[in-house]
Design brief:
By secondary structure, the chain is α+β, with helices and mostly antiparallel strands. 22% of the residues lie in helices and 40% in strands. Strands 1, 2, 3, 4, 5, 6, 7 and 8 form an eight-stranded mixed β-sheet that branches.
Amino acid sequence: MSQTTNKVLKQSGVIPYRVRDGKIEVLLITNRSRQDWVIPKGGICKGMSPSDSAAKEAWEEAGVIGQVNTHQLGVYKYRKRGNTYCVNLFLLPVQLVLEDWPEASQRERQWLDINTAASLVKEASLKEILKTSKDQVNF
């Protein structure tokens, strides 16, 4: 009898944010099917640190650029297609929002207050990280 071992795949991601009128807004994007709101994330690129890889994902998936805070904000897990993904999260203060980016035709993006963003994402642990992220933001 064979036993199937599910892999745990490591990823990194960012919570892109900006401060508008003294309030913190975070940027959520849709997954490629445009059904769920998520944060920019992806596999850690070979030869890159998790935070640098997360910055690359933010550019590719959300069209935002900034200097990632290298202090890990938290970790959350999710399941997809039989695998478990473990995502290391970092904060990204957004310095530039691009009009054109690699996955622009595949995703939508929206700036939201933290509580609204937390209500839209599926994973409970990501909801909690989003809610506590405001305590980590330096104005």
